[in-house]
Amino acid sequence: SWVDLGPYLHDMIDRHEIIAKEKDIHFIRKITKHATFVEIDQDKLTQVIDNILSNAMKYSPEGGDVTITLLHQGHNVRVSISDQGMGIPKESQTKIFDRFYRVDKARARSVGGTGLGLAIAKELVHAHGGEIWVESKYKVGTTIYFTLPYSTFKGEEA
Ligand code: ATP
Ligand code: MG
């Protein structure tokens, strides 16, 4: 179905505010006000963004900022979610999208998870012709980016 990503992202972030407050995490929203329609399975997209947002909170210390950005970039929309958490060592950055991969198993055990979230995100984004990638600096923070091809002519064809 058609989803307008701006309002959709605001709703998703709203639903995470209670959990964020418990960890004193502040969401910073840099979300374009322009209509940003993508044709996508909304439940699956919810699963993807749920996981990326949960990761940003799970792997961050108390008091951090999590910044959610939505912008238009040519024929794509780009979503990014940035945290000020523990970061991901360079040698692990290509592996986090693999099924069941978790950085530092001993440390990860204390934080719940199966290592599937980003593998599912990658599948969905690729199935829609988008890309997903990470930029991260160990002990500084992590940004997950993904793109989706967008269309502005929702229901406006002649
Ligand atoms: P699941 O999402 O299945 O509950 P998970 O969060 O461990 O479990 P993924 O979401 O696929 O699995 O993430 C894979 C691994 O990448 C995580 O275990 C963690 O080590 C690392 N990781 C993911 N996001 C971040 C982040 N924002 N900061 C630091 N490390 C991260
Ligand atoms: Mg996860």
UniProtKB/TrEMBL annotation:
Name the source's superkingdom: Bacteria
List each copy of the Histidine kinase domain by range: 1-152
What does the UniProt entry say about where the protein is found? Cell membrane
What is the protein name given in its UniProt record?
histidine kinase
Provenance organism: Halalkalibacterium halodurans (strain ATCC BAA-125 / DSM 18197 / FERM 7344 / JCM 9153 / C-125) (Bacillus halodurans)
The uppermost taxa in this organism's lineage are: Bacteria, Bacillati, Bacillota, Bacilli, Bacillales
Please give the first and last residues shown and the length of the full protein: 450 to 607 of 607
